[in-house]
Amino acid sequence: MSDFALKDAPMNTRTQTRAKRVYATDLAARGEPMVFAMGGSLAIGLLMILGILGLIAWFGFTTFWPQRIAVVTAKDGSVIAGEVFRSESFKPADAQLAAVPAESRRQIEEDLGYAGRTLYRVGNYDLYGEDFQWRNDYDVASVDYPADLAFIERQEWGPFVGRVTQLTLNGEVTEAPSADAVQAAIAAGQARRAEIQRLKTDEIGRVSHEIEALRLEVKAAVLDYGANDERTLAKQAEVAEATKALEAKYGEFSLQLQALQAEDAKYAMTIAEIGGQTKSQPLSTIVRLYQPNDMGFFDKLAVYGGRWGEFIFAEPREANTEGGVWPAIVGTLVMTVLLSLMVAPFGVMTALYLREYARQGRLVSFVRICVNNLAGVPSIVYGVFGLGFFCYVLGGSIDQIFFPEKLPAPTFGTGGVLWASLTLALLTVPVVIVATEEALAAVPRSMREGSLACGASKWQTIRWIVLPRALPGIMTGLILAMARGAGEVAPLMLVGVVKLAPELPLDLTWPFVHLDRSFMHLGFHIYDVGFQSRNAEAGRPMVYVTTLLLIAIILILNAAAISVRNRLKRRFAGSQF
Predict the structure, then answer these.
(1) Coil, strand, or helix at residue 521?
(2) What is 69-161's CATH number, 2.100.10, 3.30.1490, 2.30.30, 3.40.1000?
(3) Quick check: 187 pLDDT over 50?
(4) Pick from 430, 433, 424: which is nearest to 492 by CA?
(5) Verdict on whether the full-model pTM lies above 0.90
(6) Over the range 412-433, which residues count as b (16 or more CB within 10 Å of their CB) and which as e?
(7) 103-123 residue pLDDT tens
(8) Fold for domain 326-571?
(9) Stronger pLDDT, 24 or 483, i.e. the higher one
(10) Is 532 helix (H, G, I), strand (E, B) or coil?
(11) Could you tell me if 157 and 321 are in contact, meaning their C-beta atoms sit under 8 angstroms apart?
């Protein structure tokens, strides 16, 4: 209402209008609209976070639950068997629609031209050349769930969906074997596979490492003393004798391995897919066999737990789309711990100097601006710097000085867990510096003055008064650095992470932590499975479950750090907080 209209209005109307204007002005002055807006933004943000976490948790926790196997018979007589993977609606092309029966066509027209279809995980890649097949709903004649169909997980070629028709044990063939006999034979085959793997990696691998170490000793002697020096010749004679003994051991283990592999070839089972095609499968290559259509809840729960155990403690297979992620878990944890050990001292010492010792002025302000800007540099830039400086310059120099006998094969002159940790330490050190400075500034000045007045030196004041009370804030910065470093992928692709690491960076061989080795990482594993596997559909469940595991590991590490921080807070609550 305008001021001219307000003059001619009744007294009650003018009073109410002015009161509304005063209330609106007072409401804006108190900032209540902004409070509502900020609260709404917080609620939306929390819903988004809970939504994505809920989505990951749902698909992650349901990935390993055994699904029923459907036998789908089409109207043209073709038959497939597989797990229901997902369903969707689509719009058939005109040519497809013309071939649809009249009744189904009317239903599609009633649904605005959309029809349904289902994607089945049929497995049997070695027979079909594909893991998944679509079936349109209007082409399906019937869907059945036979109790005798088995889902067979294998070391190679992915799962097999079909029936066990024969069992061959040491040359003896059994037709239509019982389920108990099949499971017992599979358990024996897994034991043989474990023994074969032990001979390959533990025994033969250890002897090969020792022979290679002796060869490098001879090469080092040649580089140090020359090929014709007496010391070199003595070393060659010593190494030749030791190598001869090792080669004898190598031969013994090789014969044991050949005998075990020949024995293992006598144990197999014949499996047939739904269409009748058969395949002879060695028993030692079977990971798991179960009949989901004939299983109760607790039987499925046992398979579910076994799959989780395999996922956490086994090595990956089938281009990382199946099996476990134990190497990636070890690599992620080792890198995160090394990152924390490297970033904490550098970040804290830098912040201590800037806050406690440096004379405040333009130069210190410029340094702080640079530190803040470093936090916004794209992570791939740190990866390029780490590759150029750490791997090629620093690592190449280390190889020239300490490992010349291994050249031209690089030791530290290529990507490894050490350079990856240093690269991510540079990436996250600005976070620690800023958090530490804020924590140091929060310590009351009166405490510093009281300590100095009692005769303590500046370092004693910092060591015994300032740092203990700033530790909760320092831990906050370290928590943020750990969380960011553990989730980074782009720099790691340049400085050490690989698709499949033949050896772990942490094992029982001296020096136990191998800083020069490449490693697997859960974040890169997610990228590799989701975007680099031969079949995106097969890799999608592994993406969700690996993401869930990575989030769980970060939460556990953060929870441990938060627990330490809270204890420090309670310790100094009386004097500071």
Answers:
(1) coil
(2) 2.30.30
(3) yes
(4) 424
(5) no
(6) bbbbbbbbbbbbbbbbbbbbbb
(7) 778 888 777 888 899 999 999
(8) MetI-like fold (1.10.3720)
(9) 483
(10) coil
(11) no
